[in-house]
Amino acid sequence: MKKSTFYEILKSQNKPDKDENLKKLIFDLFNYNKGLYGYRRITFALRNKGTMINHKKVQKLMKSLNLFGKTLRRKNKYSSFKGDAHKNIPNLLLDKENITEDFFRYKRIFSSDKYLKILGTDCYWIQIKKWRKSIFFSCSWFWKQRDFRVFNF
């Protein structure tokens, strides 16, 4: 090793760390947010506090402090499996009408002898901009009486 390099290293080791205050700020922000902030969010938080700093410098300092932001992930991954509860239910309102041997069509039956045997439902989602609210409106149609009976908001 050259003599000049040796003394240059010795001189640089005795210097105080110029980024000590920044490291403390970054460490405090990281712990205040429970480790959820990465270098980008910490950069924006520092800028909001008035410290103008580049994101690359924040990234380098966080790496030197071994601070890495946690990523929130789903506990259970999405599964499109429907299971036994979602079986296909036959349409009981359809009646098969044979026209010829090879040709048939379905005819829907909406008449019933019993009360509450055939019901129809309809749902509406109404958004009211003036109040910044939305209303869920559900109604039931009774086919025997041919009128609406149940309304839910």
From TrEMBL:
Q: Where is the HTH-like domain?
A: 18-75
Supply the Pfam families for this chain. HTH_21 (PF13276)
InterPro entries xrefs: HTH-like_dom, Transposase_IS3/IS150/IS904
State the protein's name: Transposase, IS861
Organism of provenance: Metamycoplasma orale
